[in-house]
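In response to reviewer comment 3 from the previous cycle, which asked for concrete evidence that the modeling workflow produces usable outputs, we include below a single protein chain processed end to end. The sequence was submitted unchanged, and the resulting structure tokens are shown without manual editing.
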Amino acid sequence: IEMGAQMASGSDLPSTYRISPLSSLDGASSGPMMADDGAMIFRKLAFGATEVHIDGQVLNAGGRAEFDVLGALYHAAPDSVVQPVGLITHMDEVIGYDARLVNGETIPKTYFPDWNDQYVPRNVVEQARDFIMRIHSQGLAHGDFNMNNIMVDGSGRMIVIDPVGYDMGDLGMVAKMQARDLDRLATLEKYAR
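The workflow returned the following structure tokens.
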């Protein structure tokens, strides 16, 4: 099933994204897999995903809202965000999404192998800072910007994954998410070397 993406025209996003219905949840799980077109993807399902609580509100983890935020971030910074591919449904309810698989590892797995010498190369921290400034200037936020949601590929390029699904039209919530991003960016900057 193809569904029109609700993104601005002229972006690198395809004009449509796919919807993959699951007939059963038996054996369904998050993780890397091969798509029907042979591309390697990462499937994130909402059940079992970590919930984010802000001011007593539980924000959508792994569902449609997260996919929409990921799409907006990809549109704003396609060189720094994993590419969203499609939604996963079960019984006409969105239960997750697919994104292109990132060929890399998270910051802790890449730079903290023994946890005794913890550092992040300055160029990766600068990429993170540039990313946050770019998305914030466009009225967006990641919401869960932390070292486990920043992948680094073999060439040292930073690729962000796994945002929080929040209402992008709620300016108060966007401001809270942007503040979280800046707090976590400050933590990452402490590891720069």
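Residues 124 and 156 are 7 Å apart (CA to CA). We consider this sufficient to address the reviewer's concern, and the full set will be provided in the supplementary archive.
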